[in-house]
Amino acid sequence: MGQVKAVILAAGKGKRLQSEQFHLPKVLREAGGKPLLHYVLEALRFLPVEDTIVVAGYMMEKVQAAFPDYPYAIQAEQLGTGHAVQCARELLQDFDGTVLVCCGDMPLLRKETYEALLEAHANSGNTCTFLTGTSSVDLPFGRILRDQQGQFIRVVEDGDCTPQQKEIRELNAGVYAFDCQELLACLNLLNNHNKQGEYYLTDVPELMRQRGGKIGICCVELGEQIIGVNTVEQLNMVEEYLKNR
Predict the structure, then answer these.
(1) 136 falls in which pLDDT band (50, 70, 90)?
(2) Measured on CA atoms in the order 192, 194, 197, 198, is the torsion positive or negative?
(3) CA distances (Å), 124 to each of 9, 93, 128, 134, in order?
(4) What is the 3-state secondary structure (H, E, C) of 189-245?
(5) What pLDDT, in 10s, does the model give residues 47-78?
(6) For the residues 111-123, what does the mean pLDDT come to?
(7) Where do runs of H (alpha helix) occur along 67-222?
(8) What is the DSSP letter of 96?
(9) What is the pLDDT of residue 194?
(10) CA dist 1 to 88, 133, 193, Å?
(11) Which residue has the higher pLDDT, 29 or 141?
């Protein structure tokens, strides 16, 4: 698998989760009696703590107090997922291995799934490999566009999808393995010309491809693992799945 560092995106407010009334950032909202971020960090225990970087923003002091042993990058303004990873640049600039980027609000993703992605990346010579999956759960995730040969074209964010693209069942899980130095180079090239005015990490694979990089997909049946917690309804769903595990 080679050398790996993880970057966990954990800066969000959790507006739709109504987190403000609990005076907590999104990743500290609890499911099954533990913060969402706890489950993500547990699944990543196969990596050393010092190589697991948490990008915190909203109420970051509370996140740092809850998980004091980890290195932190601070995203003071939330300007998108690409911007979040840029905030970790200082902790990555001298690193030459693989960067696993994942989400602090996806508590159901299993260790084996992260390992399968990293293994696929290491074995393929890809510059970027991302985790995609099919799921019967209806989720507002980016769709994977492939050409007639089945090769990756690009990711279209849910909000930017045409009605035809909405029908695509292969979803972007928002979890990636990147070659670190190529990732840092492409983060510099990102723009925010989209409906949200944000810097999307989903634009990075396409930039890598334009620079001659090889993009791969690790597609698995993710089922409930793909559920990210954005709403009270999703928090309840996750709670149910955790009970039954």
Answers:
(1) confident
(2) negative
(3) 25, 24, 10, 22
(4) CCCCCCCCCCCCHHHHHHHHHHCCCCEEEEEEECHHHHCCCCCHHHHHHHHHHHHHC
(5) 999 999 999 999 999 999 999 999 999 999 99
(6) 97
(7) 81-86, 89-92, 111-124, 163-166, 180-187, 204-210
(8) -
(9) 84
(10) 22, 22, 35
(11) 29
The span from the CA of 16 to the CA of 4, in Å, is 33
Average pLDDT (98-113) is 98
Contacts 24+ apart (CB under 8 A), 240-245: 241/108, 242/31, 242/32, 242/39, 242/107, 242/108, 243/32
Q: Round to whole Å and give the CA distance between 105 and 141.
A: 14
Cα(152)–Cα(66) distance, rounded to whole angstroms?
A: 39
Distance CA 118, CA 21 (A): 38
Q: Mean pLDDT throughout 203-232? A: 93
Residue corresponding to tokens 């670190």: 180
Q: Which residues fall within 8 angstroms of residue 183, CB to CB, at 6 or more apart? A: 85, 92, 99, 128, 204
The one-letter code for the residue type at 187 is L
Structure tokens at 152: 């990756």
**What pTM does this model have?**
0.94
Total count of residues recorded for the chain: 245
Residues 29-51: what's their mean pLDDT?
A: 98
Collapsing DSSP to helix, strand or coil, 181 comes out as helix
Of the pLDDT bands very low, low, confident and very high (cuts 50, 70, 90), residue 88 is very high
* 8 Å CB contact between 11 and 58: yes
Distances from the Cα of 171 to the Cαs of 56, 121, 137, 145, 207, in angstroms?
A: 25, 18, 11, 10, 20
Which residues are designated catalytic? 16
